[in-house]
Design a protein that fits this description.
This protein has 130 residues and is an alpha+beta fold. It has four helices and three strands; from the N terminus they run E-E-E-H-H-H-H. The protein has helices at 48-51, 62-79, 83-102, 126-129, and strands at residues 16-23, 28-33, 37-40. Strand 1 and strand 2 (28-33) form a beta hairpin. The radius of gyration is 39 Å and the shape is rod-shaped. The chain starts with 15 loop residues before the first strand and ends with a helix.
């Protein structure tokens, strides 16, 4: 015994093979659907995800406030000195102190302060110790 399954007649919607889809930007596409014409607000030609253009709807100045905060952060980051800059400055100061000790005319070697004392104190030479 075979069971034959057929689609019931007159319960399925009519299919239109040349349906025109119209976007708000003016682009039109042709596709198949159960509706003759379709109107959409966004398509792949105008959607920000596909175009890469950022469209922001500013409610209560939130976007403007965010952009001003981001600008302040960037300005602070540009003025901030990093560890590499500080380390290079300390090494340059050590090299300068070493040169001064070699060019000292008294003949006695000058002492170079430890790294912790490089903040702003002057180097101690044999003349300043006495």
């Amino acid at each position: 015994c075979y069971y034959h399954f057929y689609m019931k007649k007159e319960i399925h919607p009519q299919y239109f093979s040349n349906t025109v889809v119209t976007c708000a930007c003016g682009r039109t596409l042709t596709t198949g659907s159960t509706v003759e014409t379709i109107h959409v607000e966004l398509c792949s030609a105008c959607h920000p995800f596909y175009t890469g253009k950022q469209k922001l709807v500013d409610t209560a100045r939130r976007v403007e406030k965010f952009q001003s905060r981001a600008g302040k952060k960037e300005a602070v980051a540009q003025t901030r000195k990093g560890k590499k800059v500080k380390r290079a400055k300390k090494e340059a100061k050590i090299a300068e102190l070493a040169e001064m000790s070699q060019s000292d005319k008294s003949g006695e070697p000058a002492t170079i302060p430890p790294k912790a004392d490089l903040g702003g104190e002057k180097a101690q030479t044999s003349e300043t110790k006495q």
